[in-house]
């Protein structure tokens, strides 16, 4: 059986050239994740440090490269399953928002060891596989309040935006107001970040394929040039290998492809599980992953006319299974949850209609292994341009919320606001889930209120009473 027959190109009205071009287009729009995912997941020590994955005896640059390799392998795995099993033109990779939840909420705010956080990703993936295999999707959907589902994307967008703006030094801490504008006109990082951010927004607005990648690389190059010409000190805008008037080749990060410290680390994490917190993390990962993927499938399905007359995605369990397998394998290798990318719409707009598009995406991800050392050469402020751009784009999901219904507006609003203000995606989701049954009961609207809503809300109330009361230590 040839490629044309295997992917049934004729029945879908497409051809090899169209599918290949569609795959290339989607890859260009989502390939930024190879650089951005390691930047978010890797821990950084020091005064301006951040939580995440740290391997004893290993430099941050080496961990970043390990994570770049793992990101590529996880993306290729999920996308290959999408290609060969689901026969759909969607790309998969570790999800934006889910990686921030892993690093800043689970490892940072909740204090869970990163190995245990990876164990939660694996457990969530296995749970996803089981629920998809037995066809329990519709029961899962009914369990979660509708306004919370619609609000999660916008809340995550705000959360990502504040993370990115902080790393770019455009938003800084302030003792009086908590946050304020940074010294943009005096800080080289902030100045170059502004230039890079608006340059990237301009490319994105013009519909340039790969605009985020171009923005990141251009900003990095400008930092290198400024350092090389002695406008700033070494290490401010570029890696330490770039000195005033010279590039010291011997100090460039060497290629690191050994992912042994990360692969299988989840097994050790299972030994340090605190049951209540672990269950919360698994639940939140599943919630965000499930509805991210479902939302992306419907959104891209509309672009490609994949939906049936009722607006549902036919055989949706197949792409959901691809997501679940990608997540499980990714967690085993050492990265956060894998999900379907809404950027897949760009390839579908180019005519991609079958798994051949996804196969091309997967192969291009594997080819990206050659540029893994580049991930360690991209400064954090440049990589976080992508975080802000994606965060802003995610805000458009707010239009799906029924703001005229107060029983939707309150839980949705709390979900969106609590995420950035508490620096936690989990707390935002919990706030919305707790608020939903309360406002429904107060308004006397019982029609769409289910026992599952009450049970979830009660469970979160108990958890946070216990946790904030210090009973978990």
Automatic annotation (TrEMBL):
The membrane topology term of the UniProt record is:
Multi-pass membrane protein
Q: Which residues cross the membrane?
A: 21-44, 64-86, 93-111, 148-165, 185-205, 212-232, 252-270, 277-300, 320-342, 354-375, 381-399, 411-439, 451-472
Tell me which UniProt keywords the record has, alphabetically: Cell membrane, Membrane, Transmembrane, Transmembrane helix, Transport
Q: Name one GO molecular function term.
A: purine nucleobase transmembrane transporter activity
Give the CC-aspect GO terms: plasma membrane
Where it sits in the cell: the answer is:
Cell membrane
InterPro entries named among the record's database cross-references: Azg-like, Azg-like_bact_archaea, NCS2
This protein is called what? Putative MFS transporter, AGZA family, xanthine/uracil permease
Q: Which organism is it from?
A: Halogranum rubrum
């Amino acid at each position: 059986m040839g490629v044309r027959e295997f992917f049934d190109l004729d029945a879908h009205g497409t051809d090899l050239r169209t599918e290949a071009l569609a795959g290339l287009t989607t890859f260009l729009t989502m390939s930024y994740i190879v650089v951005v995912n390691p930047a978010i997941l890797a821990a950084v020590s020091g005064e301006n440090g951040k939580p995440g994955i740290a391997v004893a005896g290993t430099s941050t640059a080496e961990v970043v490269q390990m994570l770049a390799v793992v990101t590529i392998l996880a993306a290729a795995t999920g996308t290959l399953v999408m290609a060969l099993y689901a026969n759909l033109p969607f790309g998969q990779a570790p999800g934006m928002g889910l990686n921030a939840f892993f690093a800043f909420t689970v490892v940072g705010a909740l204090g869970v060891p990163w190995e245990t956080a990876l164990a939660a990703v694996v457990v969530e993936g296995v749970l996803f596989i089981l629920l998809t295999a037995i066809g329990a999707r519709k029961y899962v959907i009914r369990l979660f309040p509708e306004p919370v589902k619609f609000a999660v994307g916008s809340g995550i967008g705000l959360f990502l935006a504040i993370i990115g703006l902080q790393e770019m030094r455009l938003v800084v801490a302030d003792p009086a107001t908590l946050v304020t504008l940074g010294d943009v006109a005096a800080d080289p990082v902030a100045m170059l970040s502004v230039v890079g951010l608006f340059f990237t927004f301009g490319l994105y607005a013009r519909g340039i394929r790969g605009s985020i990648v171009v923005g990141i690389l251009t900003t990095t190059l400008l930092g290198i040039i400024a350092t090389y010409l002695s406008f700033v000190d070494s290490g401010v805008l570029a890696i330490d290998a770039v000195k005033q008037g010279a590039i010291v080749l011997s100090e460039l990060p060497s290629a690191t492809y050994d992912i042994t410290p990360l692969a299988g680390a989840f097994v050790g994490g299972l030994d340090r599980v605190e049951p209540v917190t672990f269950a919360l993390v698994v639940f939140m990962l599943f919630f965000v992953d499930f509805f991210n993927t479902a939302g992306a499938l419907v959104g891209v399905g509309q672009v490609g006319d994949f939906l049936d007359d009722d607006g549902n995605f036919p055989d949706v369990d197949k792409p959901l299974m691809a997501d679940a397998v990608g997540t499980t394998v990714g967690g085993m290798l050492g990265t956060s949850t894998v999900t379907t990318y809404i950027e897949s719409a760009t390839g579908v707009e180019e005519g991609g209609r079958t798994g051949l598009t996804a196969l091309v995406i997967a192969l291009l991800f594997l080819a990206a292994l050659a540029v893994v050392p580049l991930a360690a050469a991209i400064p954090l402020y440049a990589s976080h341009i992508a975080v802000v751009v994606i965060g802003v784009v995610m805000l458009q999901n707010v239009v799906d919320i029924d703001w005229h219904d107060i029983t939707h507006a309150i839980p949705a609003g709390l979900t969106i606001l609590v995420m950035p203000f508490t620096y936690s995606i989990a707390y935002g989701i919990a706030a919305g889930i707790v608020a939903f049954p309360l406002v429904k009961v107060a308004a006397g609207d019982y029609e769409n209120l289910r026992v599952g809503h009450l049970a979830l809300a009660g469970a979160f109330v108990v958890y946070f009473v216990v946790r904030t009361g210090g009973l978990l230590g």
